[in-house]
């Protein structure tokens, strides 16, 4: 009976979330096409113009939303590690852009990852952080409506007014409580409601987030506090945070060259089993290929990754190179290595000594190194 009730609640939650997103999409499409008509109504124009306005309006308003979170967090003492809009991620501490797998997020097209400077639980400051995005959209909408009312030119007034409407819809929608389809991320409204009900982030989750932030900021995993890492390894973490924890521990184990420990971690990872974090599935495929020599299973795992990972993700290309090498497909393996090197260069990501040794072995047709050395901290 309990399972039936739980499944019913999950199904209702998914339906609610899909309903919210459908209504939001409908409310966002109309202003974009109205804006196109306002701007070019006096001349014939393609419906594609409305789609272009839709994409432009969305990017502008989602960017404003995420910057609202980032500014609010910074004012509250957060360290902002990542700002994501669509598939573009920006890491302020190291001033780098990178491609992001935007999975089933609670936000409508982006997110911000920040951590507090201590392990204390700042409920009031967390509330301001979550409210910053919707507030930015509502303030932007108000400013645009005023500008449209007082501006000159009917065409420009129409475009600005419809942009204001899109910002208003996004800000309002984000305040509606709902969870992502996989239940692992939540809208700003759901986060604020949870805080009002007294939900607090556990110490283990705080530690996992803190070390994930240090990783994004470029701090070598071999320099992380051993005590904090040990507490995360032994502590219980809620399901919403397990992918974060596994991702952080994976980088730690790989930094120390402990491939077997990294593989055991991913074998037990819920994020790999249910595919909620493609990067972990890709890393698991790499370890299965390198340590077990099982090219077929590794290829099956890689088949679960998003299609665009084939050309844009370093880890995917590294894993694919190992799969081809095991199968004796040397030309394809060398091509995958070349692509991986290109991606690393484009992302200003220097290869460590283990990756260089692996790639050289593939290029020279030698046996693959199945034991890695501890990475030297920069």
Structure report:
The protein is mainly alpha-helical. It folds into 2 domains: 143 residues, no CATH class; 162 residues, Serine Threonine Protein Phosphatase 5, Tetratricopeptide repeat. The protein has 16 helices and 4 strands. It has a 4-stranded antiparallel β-sheet with strand order 3-2-1-4, sandwiched between helices. β1 and β2 form a beta hairpin. The longest helix is centred in the N-terminal third of the chain and has 39 residues. It is globular. The model has no long low-confidence stretch (mean pLDDT 86).
- Note the overall shape: globular
Whole-number tally of structural domains: 2
CATH class of the largest domain: Mainly Alpha
The N- and C-terminal alpha carbons lie at a distance of 56 Å
Largest sheet: 4 strands, antiparallel
Q: Strand order across the biggest sheet?
A: 3-2-1-4
Number of helices: 16
Number of strands: 4
Q: Based on the coordinates given, report the CATH architecture of the largest domain.
A: Alpha Horseshoe
Poorly predicted segments: none
Beta content? 5-15%
Radius of gyration: 23 Å
SS-based class: mainly alpha
Residue share in helix: 55-70%
SSE map:
Blueprint: H1 2-40, H2 47-75, E1 79-85, E2 88-91, E3 96-99, E4 110-115, H3 123-150, H4 154-174, H5 188-196, H6 203-216, H7 226-234, H8 239-255, H9 259-267, H10 270-274, H11 278-292, H12 295-302, H13 309-312, H14 314-326, H15 330-346, H16 353-364
Antiparallel strand pairs: 1-2, 1-4, 2-3
Helix pairs in contact: 1-2, 1-4, 2-3, 2-4, 3-4, 3-5, 6-7, 6-8, 8-9, 9-11, 11-12, 11-14, 12-14, 14-15
